[in-house]
Write a structure and sequence with these properties.
Layout (H helix, E strand, L loop, with lengths): L2 H17 L5 E17 L2 E19 L2 E7 L5 H15 L13 E4 L12 H17 L4 E19 L4 E18 L5 E10 L10 H13 L12 E4 L1 H13 L4 H4 L3 H6 L13 E4 L20 E6 L2 E2 L6 H7 L7 E2 L8 E2 L4 E3 L6 H5 L5 E5 L9 E4 L7
Parallel strand pairs: 4-6, 8-15
Antiparallel strand pairs: 1-2, 1-5, 2-3, 5-6, 6-7, 9-10, 9-14, 10-11, 12-13, 15-16
Helix pairs in contact: 3-4
């Protein structure tokens, strides 16, 4: 841990120690980050951004009442803590219910292969410009493009009144590439490709074929026939099935959505059959090098692998410490904050359907006419749909 991070940690520990007996629970999160981002729109360089920031948030809970206060500098820490405590006492009128978690002290460094902080903005621009030109040159029907790369390195410090002190480093490297094609009939279609890494800038290097794939899909969709309205047997590819289970079921597993809604508690009773026996849905924070992966969530709870549905049966929910305490269940490490100046809420990590053992060709058997939905556009449930006139893999 760097000297600066150590100094910050000691300052936060001392601040917590001075106030921890005034409320039922107190925590401070601080995030220091540096980031760059570049984007092209069509032939034009649309933006070049570089930023350094420090921000933080304080949560206090007293008699079941929560407050959240943000700050932009450690000099104002004392005043902001007192403000958070005062607000919590104003709203607290019930019993504080937080599931018990053992105190943790840990430092989690990011094992970086090629650090984007060592790559100049000029080199990043050249790399992005070359990919953008691939999209523009692919076909005359490509009308415009949207291409961007970004990287962000952050050090997140978490201290709470029960003894936890966790410092985690995090790197995110992203590339997004979109081509917009227009046909002679005026129809517009878009192809999209994205890449991500938690530890290596080189995920953006040598991906010409993947970038070209975005343009190819945009052009190919200009000839695609629309699916006639009706009811069909549908097969989703792995990309789209992941998005589907995230939207259709994953959010229903977030306990902050469930515990205040008696109707949802009735519908989502643990042990209730939710699908065929072969259906297994997981939420897994322990997988390596994925956007939702983490060792600890933003309440200092270890990230875990959970079976939301096991053998077709609803088996677990996603929790913060508060929802686990109120529902008398176990914390799952799913309290997540966008940044330190946002309060953590219950959200998924990496959610997916586990693979089965049925070959793709066998899935198509017996389908006289159906829909094979392939990929998605961004994070939305949009895909190229292909009618299956014959029961065969395509």
């Amino acid at each position: 841990m760097t000297t600066a991070a150590t100094a910050t940690t000691e300052q936060l520990k001392n601040a917590i120690a001075s106030y921890k007996n005034q409320v039922d629970y107190l925590e401070i999160r601080v995030e220091q980050s540096e980031s760059t981002g570049l984007s092209f729109r069509g032939k034009q360089l649309d933006s070049v951004d570089r930023s350094f920031s420090l921000g933080g948030g304080i949560r206090a809970c007293h008699n079941g009442g929560w407050s959240f206060v943000t700050f932009n500098g450690l000099k104002e820490l004392k005043d902001r803590i007192e403000e958070a405590i005062s607000q919590a006492k104003l709203v607290g009128k019930e019993e504080t219910q937080l599931a018990k978690v053992e105190p943790i002290e840990d430092y989690v460094p990011e094992e970086i292969k090629r650090d984007p902080r060592g790559v100049s903005l000029q080199d990043k621009r050249k790399l992005l410009e070359s990919y953008n030109q691939i999209l523009l040159d692919f076909d005359p029907r490509i009308q415009t493009t949207m291409a961007s790369i970004s990287d962000r390195f952050a050090t997140k410090t978490f201290i709470n009144s029960t003894g936890s002190c966790i410092v985690q480093e995090r790197l995110d490297v992203n590339g997004r590439f979109a081509a917009i094609a227009r046909g002679e009939d005026g129809i517009v279609r878009q192809g999209f490709e994205s890449v991500h890494s938690r530890n290596d800038f080189d995920v953006l290097v040598g991906i010409e074929d993947r970038v070209r794939g975005a343009a190819e899909r945009a052009v190919r969709q200009l000839e695609a026939k629309s699916v006639k309205g009706g009811q069909y047997t549908v097969i989703l590819d792995p990309y789209l099935s992941g998005v589907f289970i995230h939207e259709a079921f994953g959010h229903l597993s977030e306990a902050d959505f469930v515990y205040e809604n008696p109707k949802m508690q009735e519908l989502l009773t643990l042990g209730k059959p939710m699908g065929i026996e072969q259906l297994n849905v997981v939420d897994d924070a322990t997988m390596e090098n994925l956007p939702g992966s983490m060792k600890y969530d933003d309440e200092g709870v270890p990230g875990q692998r959970k079976y939301l549905i096991k053998n077709g049966v609803l088996s677990e929910r996603l929790h913060s410490r508060e929802t686990a305490g109120k529902m008398q269940e176990v914390p799952t490490g799913n309290a997540r904050a966008i940044r330190a100046n946002y309060p953590p809420i219950v959200r998924m990590t990496n959610t997916a359907i586990e693979p089965g053992d049925t070959p793709l060709e066998q899935m198509f058997e017996g389908i006289e006419e159906g829909v094979y939905a392939v990929r998605m556009l961004g994070d939305r449930l949009m895909a190229k749909c292909l009618p299956l006139q014959q029961p065969k893999a395509t």
